[in-house]
Amino acid sequence: MFESYTIKDIAKALGLSTSTVSRALNGSYEIGAETKKLVLEYAEKVNYRPNPIALSLKEQKSHSIGVVVCEVANDYFSQAINGIESIAYNRGYHVIITQTHESFDRESTNVKHLLSRHVDGLLVSLSAETADTSQYKYLHDKGFPIVFFDRVAADVNTHKIIANNFKGSFDATELLIKAGFTKIAHLTNSNNLLISRERFDGFKAALDKHQLDFKPGYLKHCNHGGMIQDEVELAVKELLNMDEHPDAIFIASDRLTISCMHILKRLGIKIPQDIGIAGFTNSDVAELFDPPLTVIRQPAFQIGQMATEMLIKTIESKWPIEDFITEQVETELIIRSSSQKLF
Amino acid sequence: MFESYTIKDIAKALGLSTSTVSRALNGSYEIGAETKKLVLEYAEKVNYRPNPIALSLKEQKSHSIGVVVCEVANDYFSQAINGIESIAYNRGYHVIITQTHESFDRESTNVKHLLSRHVDGLLVSLSAETADTSQYKYLHDKGFPIVFFDRVAADVNTHKIIANNFKGSFDATELLIKAGFTKIAHLTNSNNLLISRERFDGFKAALDKHQLDFKPGYLKHCNHGGMIQDEVELAVKELLNMDEHPDAIFIASDRLTISCMHILKRLGIKIPQDIGIAGFTNSDVAELFDPPLTVIRQPAFQIGQMATEMLIKTIESKWPIEDFITEQVETELIIRSSSQKLF
DNA sequence: ATCGTTTCCGGGAACGTTTGCACATTAACA
DNA sequence: TGTTAATGTGCAAACGTTCCCGGAAACGAT
């Protein structure tokens, strides 16, 4: 039944006061053994569950956490959310998810909305458009719990969970180089995002190590994170139409990787004969692609879990936290034939 | 700022009572024009937002809806959840998502948990294991708002949103037949699910129409909905090892379709040369598969939206609802080469 | 001057909890 | 017999709202 018993009901039924019942339920030492037993048994019998809303009001805690991501229909984020939910559920928190669709305005209003919902903390992965992180800085300075994951704000000193983007990029790029590709382009997200810069650095470092020089024309940013199909298409076409066009593309985000594959398919470009491909994605079906796709995969589920654990620890901490840590997790390079150069 | 102003604060600052402020904010006719203006302006200035938790306690409504699905990391369900969120957000509800992982026990505890959270209504897609729907019947009889989507409970008379499973299956099967396949197997979910039975009926009807007889050995149920990889693998292998093995498989669920593709790939089975494939899935990358996969696609986003609209309408209805409707939406058959017979 | 109406506003209860405090009972002690 | 301590229980406030009442002031009509 969904009309639930309250402490008042129990008190009335047992001829006790609500305070006594409350204390008995919470195992207070100042309640007699038999009274306690009486209450506990009755509560069990009628399946008493404390009203979480009343508790929230009393404790001034909503027991909910707000999540800000660009979109949920995305392999990386749906896996991360899975991780977030799994921890939150067990710890008695519920999760309110909001999507920015890579828009800074949406992100701001989402944060405001979550705050007006009185969430106890925020789990944030920035939108591609976001350059201004002052709202987070402000909240964080006021002591509001925030944990960033994946797309972190460089200038807000709070807990963060990130993948080893440099190494992931370096390894993937080096893989392409070792396979024999020499003219490697880089398709990436907005430069606002720290991950874009880190991934670029890894890419560049691999080039440097193998004495390949970096062509500025081979670097393409999609400032809307792949939400605008035309933007990606334009970038890809520009690469393909260059006089000395690239023989491989290293792609730095999940959505861009998938978009790019669609575009290449539509254009009839053969992989890896015409162009080699390696990209970040958490798709579980990259193995089934034609050709099977070489990917850099992040432990999205674990990242979601770690971020949530950290956030809840921060929320429930008795003292203000001053030591904020940045956890780094390793990526996984899964080599398939899209990155194999054919001679 | 996240410490928000309360009505009390406003009352104190303006030398009014909380009742007056509350009424002014709600535009009550019994408040003088200038008082109202004063309050409204001050509230605007300090960016007053009513505390949703206090409101919930007062109104005995949590403004949240519970969602029960088998998993979120699934193309169909992540798209549906996207639709659910989009409506709920606009209507001022938040969404609590729970996953059954196709287990009936998990489903029961999830429902109990959501109820103890005082959700105002439930959006449910049954687990593959669920045969007993009495808990929903009970709640529904008590007047608790429930809307089923996709995997509906046949014997609970409430609002439902389903795809035209019969037609989707019929069309896909007929497509395989017309392509020249004659020995078509059917890989599907547990028979507990109404959608499995409907999809089987569509499959069977197409066979009948074209005078192909149905071989019981060609029907394989995965009672755990594809959550157990070995179960799917066994089913697929049994089909392939039959004396007169099928020349095509029609697959009736998202997860099974993807699982089956992985298994066939690992076994080195060529599609469509060795076996033709068509299956239900909402994957956005089926086009990129090797070979491109013929799919039956459901309008998952819209289904999520419709279900949520219906649920909120039921929640907010003044009178008890007696006319419950079942909305049916059409599926989309996307023909690609996995279902093209090569001679 | 008295009464009824209108207009405007405040007091206080209620929603379901927790918790500081006060109180009652009993037992032990002087 | 009175004092103290220990034990067990209840009252009431608080969290932020809404809303039923009751009431004060102003006004016109009698």
Give an overview of the whole structure.
2 copies of one chain form a homodimer. With 343 residues, the first copy, chain A, is α/β, with parallel strands linked by helices. Chain A has 12 helices and 12 strands. Chain A has helices at 7-14, 18-25, 33-45, 52-59, 75-90, 104-116, 134-141, 165-179, 194-209, 229-240, 254-267, 300-316, and strands at 64-69, 94-99, 121-124, 146-149, 159-163, 184-189, 219-222, 248-251, 276-280, 294-297, 326-329, 332-334. In chain A, strand 3 (121-124), helix 7 (134-141) and strand 4 form a beta-alpha-beta unit. Chains A and B meet through helix 4, helix 5, strand 2 and helix 11 of A and helix 4, helix 5, strand 2 and helix 11 of B. The first copy, chain A, binds a DNA duplex (30 and 30 nucleotides) through residues 6-8, 16-20, 22-23, 26, 28, 30-32, 35, 50-51, 53-60.
Characteristic terms for this protein:
alpha/beta, homodimer, 6-stranded mixed sheet, elongated, about 15% strand, 12 helices, 6-stranded parallel sheet, about 350 residues, DNA-binding, about 45% helix
